[in-house]
Specification:
Strands 3-1-2-8 form a 4-stranded antiparallel beta sheet. The chain has 8 helices and 8 strands. Helices cover 45% and strands 21% of the residues. It starts with a helix and ends with a strand. Helix 5 (106-119) runs antiparallel to helix 8 and helix 6 (151-161) packs across helix 7 (182-191). A hairpin with a 5-residue loop joins strand 1 and strand 2 (96-103). It is α+β, with helices and mostly antiparallel strands. It has helices at 3-14, 18-39, 47-58, 63-75, 106-119, 151-161, 182-191, 214-229, and strands at residues 83-90, 96-103, 123-124, 134-143, 165-168, 172-177, 198-205, 233-238.
């Protein structure tokens, strides 16, 4: 997505009701648990955990909630083990959709994801069927209203830190990085005091699909809404030009 539409979606999500905010906190809570199990509870020695904490703060998750999540994951050997699973498929009009999940029951999650696609007249495909249409990149979105730095200075700071690309949108800046450089770039911007509206490794579509049929638009929204309601779903990527 372009920085502008991505930023619009970020603002929309942050302005949503408490239930939607609770969903975001659930997603980040699971990411914290996985990061702690993989690399330990000390963010100084765990770059993945540092990145998740930054994501949590960008989504206004309270510090005590973050700390509780870290302590719970570090101290409870019997806590739920989440398994990552990715599903790929097609929505209406040939749109491509990728669904990242973290689950304690893969059978339940697979059934729910398949059901969401089916109800929106789409279908789940084989692994790799649409992911080649996307590039895995680090993406950092900065709200212009929250950034005092001049655009040129911000661009140089990002590029000097190792970013691949920088673009200016109407109300935001977008920084793109290689996935392996994402943590370093994000940390450099954080150290420079730059507030980030969003910072994550994501899947960016190489091309977008425009839907003109009202039925197709209704169906893809049905798929995306059902996936959004599923607690096992962490992230959904698609190439629909909304």
């Amino acid at each position: 997505m372009s920085g502008h539409s991505k930023f619009a979606n970020i603002k929309h999500k942050k302005e949503k009701n408490d239930a939607a905010r609770g969903k975001i906190f659930t997603i980040i809570g699971r990411e914290i648990a996985v990061a702690v199990k993989e690399g330990g509870p000390d963010p100084a020695n765990n770059s993945k955990l540092r990145d998740v904490i930054a994501k949590a703060k960008a989504n206004n998750m309270p510090n005590d909630t973050i700390e509780r999540g870290i302590k719970k994951a570090a101290g409870d050997a019997n806590s739920v083990n989440y398994v990552a699973a990715t599903y790929e498929g097609y929505g209406p009009g040939g749109t491509a959709i990728i669904v990242d999940t973290l689950t304690d029951n893969k059978n339940r999650t697979a059934a729910n994801v398949r059901s969401a696609f089916t109800k929106g007249k789409g279908n789940v495909g084989t692994q790799g069927c649409v992911s080649f249409m996307f590039d895995r990149k680090g993406q950092i979105i900065i709200d212009k209203e929250e950034c005092e730095m001049d655009a040129d200075d911000l661009m140089m700071a990002a590029l000097d830190a190792g970013a691949e690309d920088f673009s200016e949108e109407e109300d935001s800046y977008e920084v793109i990085t290689d996935p392996d450089s994402f943590s370093e770039v994000r940390q450099a911007l954080e150290d420079a005091g730059i507030a980030m509206a969003s910072a994550e490794v994501t899947m960016l579509p190489q091309n977008y699909v425009t839907l003109t049929s009202e039925q197709d638009i209704s169906n893809i929204n049905r798929i995306l809404d059902l996936l959004d309601e599923d607690d096992d779903v962490q992230q959904v990527y698609h190439n629909w030009d909304e």
